[in-house]
Specification:
Structural class: alpha/beta
CATH class of the largest domain: Alpha Beta
Oligomer: single chain
Radius of gyration: 23 Å
CATH topology of the largest domain: Ribosomal Protein S5, domain 2
Largest sheet: 6 strands, mixed
Number of domains: 2
Strand content: 25-35%
CATH architecture of the largest domain: 2-Layer Sandwich
Order of helices and strands: EHEHEEEEHEEEHEHEEEEEEHEH
Distance between the termini: 13 Å
Helix content: 25-40%
Strand order of the largest sheet: 3-2-1-4-5-6
């Protein structure tokens, strides 16, 4: 739950009448779980909000906000200021929509003695993809996550491939999992679950729960040491590292004859699960605990 301090000039205009859309927007925000601090609202404004069923808490009345974002007016625009963001909006409808369904993007940079990685993603993208890890087949598999998960994804990795592929695959998974976790934020309103996928003679049964509890169950019998330049043993390790940093439960049961198809079914199946689970169909946290 977020707590917002609202100034009087953000509620009423110079003529003392409510700004367009403010009452409807405050109702929508309240239904989505937002709490409002009144600051020093004039009695007339407080009475207006009270009559409309909008609760305004006074500081100190059992309100313990994690942050104190402030909504004010700046000329004809509403300004939302928090510890790490300043956003400008032309009206209350735009502001409420941004607060209830904020952009789900993330940028992660991970630099070690073994790898230098950057990941940029947009959960609500269209599948745009650029990737350069130095491992062609791995890049092809990562593309499946973007294309079939409808996530815009940009991954760059400079790893110690002169040693082997392990650090590159593992660290990309760690960075990607972290970026996904950051983009999901508090996971409010998401479907949370997903499952699927056949591919030719192969079948990957993939189940995903964005539960906040990391776990991997992976059952697959690969017969080749490598597919392209990707060691098959690293497929399980990729999804393990991803699950740990995404804070998700992942189950894979993979059957087939062609290791290429089996691995691709894993990545496509995960992407389809992610596409289903990321959908925002409500405003609450999808858990009886109230947190994920």
């Amino acid at each position: 739950m977020s707590t917002i301090r609202i100034s009087a000039e953000a509620v009423t205009g110079p003529d003392a009448n409510p700004l367009p859309g403010v009452i409807t927007s405050l109702h929508d925000l309240q239904k989505a779980g937002f709490t409002f601090l009144s600051g020093a609202l004039p009695p007339g404004v407080s009475a207006l909000l009270q009559n409309e069923g909008i609760a305004m808490a006074e500081p100190g009345n059992d309100v313990a906000p994690v942050e104190f974002p402030v909504i004010t007016t700046d000329g004809v625009q509403l300004v939302y200021r928090s510890s790490d963001a300043v956003q400008h909006f032309d009206n209350w409808n735009e502001l409420a929509a941004w607060l209830i369904t904020p952009p789900r993007t993330a940028t992660v940079k991970r630099n070690t003695r073994e790898t230098r990685i950057s990941v940029d993603l947009n959960l609500d993208g269209t599948g745009q993809f650029t990737c350069q890890t130095g491992l062609g087949f791995f890049d092809h598999m990562l593309e499946q996550i973007a294309r079939h998960g409808e996530i815009d994804l940009n991954i760059l990795c400079d790893g110690d491939l002169h040693i082997d592929e392990h650090h590159t695959v593992e660290d990309v998974a760690l960075a990607l999992g972290t970026a996904l976790d950051q983009a999901f934020g508090n996971r409010r309103g998401i479907e949370r679950y997903g499952f699927v996928l056949p591919m030719d003679e192969s079948r990957a049964t993939v189940a995903l729960d964005l539960s906040g509890r990391p776990y991997l169950l992976f059952e697959a019998g690969f017969t080749r040491d490598k597919v392209g330049d990707l060691p098959t043993e690293m497929v399980k390790h990729f999804f393990y590292s991803l699950a740990m940093n995404l804070r998700a439960t992942l189950h894979f049961e993979v059957k087939g004859e062609n290791d290429h198809h089996m691995i691709e079914a894993c990545f496509k199946g995960f992407a389809k699960c992610l596409k289903a689970a990321k959908l925002r169909t409500g405003t609450g946290i999808p858990s009886s605990k109230g947190v994920l």
